[in-house]
Write a structure and sequence with these properties.
- The complex is a heterodimer.
- By secondary structure, chain A is mainly β.
- Chain A is built from no helices and eleven strands.
- By secondary structure, chain B is mostly beta strands.
- Helix content of chain B is 0%, strand content 49%.
- In chain B, strands 2, 4, 5, 6, 9, 10 and 11 form a seven-stranded mixed sheet that branches. A four-stranded antiparallel sheet of chain B has the order 1-3-8-7, with no helix packed on it.
- Classes of the chains: A mainly beta, B mainly beta.
């Protein structure tokens, strides 16, 4: 099946710093998304981005489908950015299954 | 408000006692799916449904059943729960799925299940 790897696994930032999170995937995909799981456990969709670049406020994402990776950029980080960031892909492996990466745990210090 | 609603939020049950976790969405989405989240194992898909009466297995379907009799509801059924099904469960929906899955997922708030 499709493998999804995220890096780094853990990240500690000072408030105001920038960061880049990476998601590598092993095969072609129909769908790639980034999610944020906040400290209360809620999963929030950040981007649907199977290719190209999107921006939403301080967050932006780029997916290079031909090279099988996606990047999530967080600029001017805030304490409310803390939580776990997941990428998830949908590809055909005997069905259109959704595969999540293990996540990047981010802590932003005030 | 557009949302995915799961019930209950918390449930403690005993081994072997059948239970159902409900999931309902009010966005007329065709695609719905269930996931479990476990420490060290991340989020894994249990079942998904491309549309009414169309369901398929995800990566960890053993011990679970689903049904999709109407578009808005996608219940997860544990016929005989066991302690290894203790987990945090999430339901999600999307306008479309599969090859034409060009939308993001909306998740419910989660159901924390403990089987003793």
């Amino acid at each position: 099946g499709i493998q999804v790897e995220q890096s780094p696994p853990d990240l500690i930032l000072q408030e105001g710093a920038n960061s880049t999170l990476r998601c590598n995937f092993s095969d072609s995909v129909n769908n790639l998304q980034w999610f944020h799981q906040n400290p209360w456990g809620q999963l929030i969709n950040l981007f649907y981005i199977p290719s190209g670049t999107k921006q939403n406020g301080r967050l932006s994402a780029t997916t290079v489908a031909t090279e099988r990776y996606s990047l999530l950029y967080i600029s001017s980080s805030q304490t409310t950015d803390s939580g776990v960031y997941f990428c998830a892909v949908v590809g055909y492996t005997g069905g259109f299954k959704t595969i999540f990466g293990a996540g990047t745990r981010l802590f932003v210090k005030a | 408000e557009a949302q995915v609603t799961q019930n209950p939020r918390y449930l403690i049950t005993v081994t072997g006692k059948k239970l159902t976790v409900t999931c309902s969405q009010n966005m007329n989405h065709e695609y719905m799916s269930w996931y479990r989240q476990d420490p060290g194992l991340g989020l894994r898909q249990i079942y998904y449904s491309m549309n009414v009466e169309v369901t398929d297995k995800g990566d960890v379907p053993e011990g679970y059943k689903v049904s999709r009799k109407e578009k808005r509801n996608f219940p997860l059924i544990l016929e005989s729960p066991s302690p290894n099904q203790t987990s945090l469960y999430f339901c999600a929906s999307s306008p479309r799925g599969g090859r034409i899955s060009n939308y993001g997922y909306t998740f419910g708030s989660g159901t924390r299940l403990t089987v003793v």
